[in-house]
Amino acid sequence: MEMKTKVLANDGEQHLLISRVFDLPLELLFKAYAEPDLVSQWMGTVVKKMDNRVHGSFEFETTDPKGNKMQFHGTIHTWVPDRQIVRTFEFVGMPFGVQLEQLDFSALPDGRSSLRIQSVFQSVAQRDQQLKLPFAFGLSMAHNRLEQILQPK
Amino acid sequence: MNTRRDVFQAIADPSRRAILLLLATVPSMTAGAIAANFDSARPTISKHLQILTACKLLNQQTSGREVHYQINATHMKQVADFIEPFRALWEQRFNKLESVMKKYKSR
Q: Sorting pLDDT into bands at 50, 70 and 90, what band is A58?
């Protein structure tokens, strides 16, 4: 299967790039980022605050399957509908620091659209830590499944 | 030597994955501290550490009589499996965005 989402993280750099082509017109793609109700649906998070303007800010609260609450917040620096969002992003209480995110939205010829996210971390170590998290999580999932299988019935 | 294949063999073993998981959350650990997390005999864990080090998934540092191990993040990133869960997470999220917006459009 074709990989629609691409991630580029070069060694020793403190940023990463995420890019994706959507089978959606540009206006709908941007709307998915602009409307709290829609953000809530696709991110699977509670949107506690979302003030989409320069100097505005956002606050999300997500509950993991174990019931732990996780907070995310940031400040908006640039908000150009259908074009660009520049904002800070912080996973509260995690050692990843504050990220500077630049989201570039663009239209593609056949009614599709693309999104390119550049995320700059405060250090290479923090970026690597963030990249490692789903890997570690995946490992622990594999480990848990293994434990379930091996568990005497 | 086919290093790439070796790396995948290395992470195919559940004990070695568990060692990598353990080390993913700390800067470094001694062989003894790693072994203390497992029921397996110390020589078994040493063997796993040797394999992981040979595949460049771990770095070894000797200070005095203790050998410290840490994840070799540089090499791990070259292993598709390392970055793949992160990519898959975003793929999943964006697929959801696409389906939410397709429903929204047809409303």
A: very high
Residues in chain B: 107
Residue A1's pLDDT is 45
Chain B residues touching A113 at Cβ < 8 A: none
Q: Quick one: fold of A15-123?
A: Alpha-D-Glucose-1,6-Bisphosphate; Chain A, domain 4 (3.30.530)
Q: Does A134 touch chain B if contact means CB atoms closer than 8 Å?
A: yes
Phi first, then psi: give them for residue A51, nearest 5 degrees.
-120, 90
| Domain-wise residue ranges, chain B | 3-79
User: How large is the ipTM?
Assistant: 0.84
Taking CB atoms and an 8 Å limit, are A128 and B94 in contact across chains? no
CA dist A141 and A20 (Å) reads: 26
Fold held by B3-79: Arc Repressor Mutant, subunit A (1.10.10)
Place of tokens 């890019």: A19
The H or E element that residue A121 is part of is: none
